[in-house]
Design goal:
- The two termini are about 30 Å apart.
- Helices cover about 25% and strands about 40% of the residues.
- The protein is globular and about 45 Å long.
- It has about 130 residues and is an alpha/beta fold.
């Protein structure tokens, strides 16, 4: 058994696709129209056949409340690995990304937390 797909609930699939591809650097893998929304996934360009991230439209009231509670408490919805948090932070800040936590070294890991513009906080991390 392995993880093939995970998801992040987004309040706007078009905005999410732009942010996750044009800013974070993922690439679109799958786009299937499903009425009002789409089955829309992105992947890492370093692993195009790896785990897909579904940009899942918020639809259920519980998902909206859950996301809002996480943001209010400063808790990231998910985490992405990067080679160098400080360098990635600098790159993303230059692109206008808002961080709620600047790079922070905590023993064998350095993390930072960003706002994905779609209602989520996302943590980036480097293991040392």
């Amino acid at each position: 058994m392995r993880i093939a797909l995970t998801s992040v609930c987004v309040d706007d699939q078009d905005r999410a696709l732009r942010f996750y591809t044009e800013v974070l650097g993922f690439v679109k893998k799958t786009e299937v129209p499903l009425g009002e929304h789409r089955w829309l996934t992105v992947v890492s360009p370093q692993d195009p056949d790896g785990v897909e991230l579904l940009l899942e439209p918020e639809g259920h009231p519980a998902s909206t409340a859950y996301k809002a509670a996480l943001v209010a408490d400063g808790i990231p919805f998910t985490q992405f690995a990067v080679d160098d948090v400080e360098a990635e932070h600098a790159r993303l800040v230059a692109l206008g990304v808002r961080f709620t936590q600047e790079p922070l070294a905590m023993g064998s890991v350095t993390t930072a937390v960003l706002d994905d513009t779609c209602g989520n906080l996302i943590q980036i991390a480097t293991m040392h």
